[in-house]
Design goal:
about 20% helix, about 100 residues, alpha+beta
């Protein structure tokens, strides 16, 4: 077993509830949150000027997360949404470091 795949009992990675991937045609990137509030969202490589989306959030690396599909109740407070976006950034950073 590779060292990075070992799990310590009682320890869960802060990015364990995130899945980062692409569609079968390699044309669209997605991020999925598997813990409440669960959602699926699209990732864009740049800003989405001219794209219709109820909610979009600019990330610090210039990408945008948008077209959220909420499987649970969406966050009611802006501070909760900010924590989710911070989680998106950490998950993307973790995914980049493992490739």
């Amino acid at each position: 077993m590779a060292e990075e795949n070992k799990q310590h009992p009682g320890h869960e990675s802060p990015t364990a509830n995130w899945i980062v991937g692409r569609d079968a045609h390699e044309t669209q990137s997605y991020i999925i949150h598997t813990a409440a509030p669960r959602f699926i969202a699209k990732l864009a490589a740049d800003n989405l000027e001219g794209t219709l989306s109820v909610l979009s959030c600019a990330l610090s690396d210039g990408r945008t997360v948008y077209d959220f599909v909420w499987l649970d109740q969406p966050p009611a407070q802006m501070s909760d949404l900010r924590r989710i976006v911070d989680g998106v950034e950490k998950a993307l950073e973790s995914a980049r470091s493992h490739h």
